[in-house]
From TrEMBL:
GO terms for molecular function: ATP binding; pantothenate kinase activity. InterPro entries: ATPase_NBD, Type_II_PanK, UBA, UBA-like_sf. GO terms for cellular component: cytosol; nucleus. The keyword Nucleotide-binding applies. Residues 69-78 have a biased composition (Polar residues). Residues 82-96 have a biased composition (Low complexity). It comes from Florenciella parvula. This is pantothenate kinase. Pfam families: Fumble, UBA. Residues 30-69 form the UBA domain. The keyword ATP-binding applies. It is found in: Cytoplasm.
């Protein structure tokens, strides 16, 4: 895309920045990421966005504009830095050639600089959450139709098959693929533990219980530990800190916990683990699209919504979670098609 082309055309900090993003990353996501890095360096979010716009989204030029003003140069930029940013020891015009230093944590404690930067990070995360929550609740299962050119442009992608366990396959072209990772924590893990915890007899019964449950009755949340958001590292109060963590202090956890809450917590724990493994592999393999298949997702709207939200949120909108109709049959179809090729090869042999 245009932003990627501009970044790779000049040997500066943009090259290193873009190297960690999948090809074809949306410009808006790239800008959001760059704003967050500038915030980490101590600049105000409004000034960071304005500087990036003035610098045509060139990260190093934006740093130079912002840093020049923080060092008192009146003829370089109208942007001001956040309190304490000028104490970071950055040289005005040399900022683009050097790695900018972070402001000391106590650089302007009396002016509230540290607290303000924490608040800025939290506002940035909140904007990302609002972007996702602003979508209609059913957006995760809206049908996507793409022409042949768009389908070809989707390579490479990850195919995450969730059955009893999880297999993660990188697909580079039709018929060109390799298994890159997997996990033993999958649908079999969820249903097996659900039977132990609640005595449910079928997968459908376990999902029905989860629909009625409240995982926060069992899970320890960030807000339970800190009493609020933990803005310094971008953690919202409603993020799970420890699955089933609240049951540590219960004298009789099985007697005081509803089966519905236990199964809901178990389902989210399993789904969160699958989502994290998928996301990390997508980052490693430089894949912007992740297709989820497997019987674990059959009639499982809770996991589909969670996977869709998690991939969008933690990738800052760079990656896309996609789900297929008849998701539980693709493993069988693949085995059938592979066996047909094997028979053809044997018939064509010497």
């Amino acid at each position: 895309d245009e932003a990627s082309g501009n970044a790779s055309a000049k040997p500066n900090g943009n090259d290193a920045f873009m190297a960690g993003l999948p090809s074809g990353a949306p410009v808006a996501a790239i800008v959001d990421n760059r704003v967050e890095i500038l915030m980490e360096m101590g600049f105000e979010v409004v000034d960071a966005e304005a500087a990036l716009k003035a610098a045509d989204n060139d990260f190093d030029s934006a740093v130079q504009l912002l840093t020049a003003q923080s060092n008192g140069s009146s003829n370089r930029s109208p942007y001001k830095s956040a309190p304490g940013a000028g104490a970071a020891g950055r040289a005005g015009t040399a900022a683009a050639e050097e790695t900018p230093k972070f402001p000391p944590r106590n650089a302007s404690a009396d002016a509230g600089g540290v607290d303000e930067r924490d608040a800025q990070r939290q506002r940035q995360r909140q904007r990302q959450r609002e972007r996702h929550r602003g979508k209609k609740s059913g957006d995760w299962n809206v049908k996507v139709q793409r022409d042949s050119d768009a389908i070809q442009a989707s390579f490479p992608y990850l195919l995450v098959s969730i059955g009893s366990g999880v297999s993660i396959i990188r697909v580079d072209a039709p018929g060109v693929y390799q298994r890159v990772s997997g996990s033993s924590i999958g649908g079999g893990t969820f249903f097996g533990l659900a039977r132990l915890l609640t005595g449910c007899s079928s997968y459908e019964e376990a999902l029905a219980l989860a629909e009625k449950g409240d995982a926060t009755k069992c899970d320890m949340m960030v807000g339970d530990i800190y009493g609020r958001n933990y803005g310094k590292i971008g953690l919202s109060s409603d993020i799970v800190a420890s699955s089933f963590g609240k049951l540590m202090s219960e004298k009789d956890p099985q007697g005081t916990s509803r089966p519905e809450d236990l199964v809901r917590s178990l389902l989210l724990m399993t789904t969160n683990n699958i989502g994290q493994v998928a996301l990390l592999n997508a980052q490693k393999e430089k894949c912007a699209r992740i297709y989820f298949i497997g019987n674990f997702l059959r009639s499982n709207e809770i996991s589909c919504r969670r996977l869709s939200y998690a991939i969008d949120y933690w990738s800052d909108g760079v990656m896309e979670a996609l789900f297929l109709e008849h998701e539980g049959y693709f493993g069988a179809l693949g085995a059938f098609m592979l066996s047909a090729h094997v028979v053809d090869d044997e018939e064509d042999g010497p």
